[in-house]
Amino acid sequence: MQTVWMRRLGLAAATVLAAAGSTAAQETIKIGVPVALTGTYADLGEQSRRAIMFAVDEINAAGGIRGQKAEARFLDTEAKPDLARRQGEKLALEGYKLLIGTVASGEGLAMGPMLQRWDALYISTINKANQITGSACQPRMFRANRLDASDGAVVTPWLAERKETKWAIMAADIAWGRDSGASFIKSAQANKRTIASENYSPFGTNDFAPYIQKIKDSGAEGLWVALAGRDAINFATQAKQFGLFDSIFTAGVSFVTDNTVKTLGDVSKGIWGIINYSSTLDNPANKKFVADWAKKYPGTEPSNFEGETYIGMQVLLQAIAKAGSSKPADVAKAMEGTTFDTILGKQLMRKEDHQLVGPNFFGYVGEKDGKLKPIVTMSVPPETATPPADAACKMPG
């Protein structure tokens, strides 16, 4: 295990353990996780927690970084922006200034402007809203996952091959859902497709019947869904009951993730969508990660959000090693413009907007090895999948 982590961090054994007897080695690297542990996004929050603890236990088993072990503290945000800001501040005040793993984009956007005041740093591993690395970018805020615009870059060529000309949108009425809807409309327009119905449901909606009826009445031939967690499950279950999936071709983002598929079972079979990470991706680093994951969490494979959050932890821990410090300012400096070794290959953390430049994928829910899971059918390389830095991001020089 130690050899694996030294290789991932690009460090020699002497470097990792050099400070084993120093005062610094007695301190821990404190990682704060303001994340939804209850409510609509509780399952996503649990996935974030599992990935973070996997990485923490892995690096600690390898002796830590420069002799320093890592620890993580989790506080429940219920996926509410105001609560995320309060919990993020509490963690920072308690010394857990390296923040990561928050679920909803609104939470990341709420914490971003406060990071320098808290002397903290935040890495998004799930937040998709373009503003995170666009108009709301911050010197101490980074993103290791794919943004909405990246998903749009994958949808556009895929949509060109589809026969459906009229589409409906069903998305969450939050920053991410609105961004996803806008990205899909842009892709539709590029392919001369029309939008017959746009629908944005409040976070935590239980009754989707009015939206489903509106979509059915619109005459749409295709449906784009941007819902996650309990919202996704509630919508899919009710859509199946109303026969929506039988009459309208369905695709989406965060709608065909592993845990949602596991909960929905056959209801999800045949649904297409964005796949930001999959345990089925065939490269040595990912295959080892999946095998090690199965040892820690028997009978499971890492989900979309678990894979993305683990990548965020790889970036964070490698940046700490490069900086020789766990101080947020030092880690932020070490992160900018650096290429990191990840389970999806080498990925650059772009200096201009703090967006990790990586690949993206598209596929469908089908059977593989006797299980229903998202199966990748199209891979888009990093330089194509990651749009140029948004000019709206004005990072201080």
- Major β-sheet profile: 7 strands, mixed
Strand content: 15-25%
**Overall average residue pLDDT:** 92
Ranges where pLDDT stays below 50 over 5 or more residues in a row are 10-25
Structural class: alpha/beta
Radius of gyration: 20 Å
Give the domain tally. Answer: 2
How do the strands of the widest beta sheet line up side by side?
7-6-8-9-10-14-15
Distance between the termini: 40 Å
In CATH terms, what is the architecture of the largest domain? 3-Layer(aba) Sandwich
CATH superfamily of the largest domain: Response regulator
The residue fraction in helices comes out at 40-55%
Topology, number of strands: 15
CATH fold call of the largest domain: Rossmann fold
Helical segment count: 17
Overall shape: globular
The CATH class of the largest domain, by name, is Alpha Beta
Keywords:
single chain, 397 residues, alpha/beta, Rossmann fold, 2 domains, seven-stranded mixed beta sheet, five-stranded parallel beta sheet, 17 helices, 15 strands, 42% helix, globular
How does this structure look, described?
With 397 residues, this protein is an alpha/beta fold. It folds into 2 domains: 224 residues, Response regulator (Rossmann fold), CATH 3.40.50.2300; 151 residues, Response regulator (Rossmann fold, 3-Layer(aba) Sandwich). Helix content is 42%, strand content 21%. The strands form 3 sheets. The chain has a 7-stranded mixed beta sheet, sandwiched between helices. α13 links the parallel β9 and β10. α5 crosses α6 and α8 runs parallel beside α9. The longest helix is centred in the N-terminal third of the chain and has 20 residues. The protein is globular, with a radius of gyration of 20 Å. The two termini are 40 Å apart. About 4% of the residues have low confidence. This is Amino acid/amide ABC transporter substrate-binding protein (HAAT family). InterPro entries: BCAA_transport (IPR051010), Leu-bd (IPR028081), Leu_Ile_Val-bd (IPR000709), Peripla_BP_I (IPR028082). It holds the Pfam family Peripla_BP_6. Keywords: Amino-acid transport, Signal, Transport.
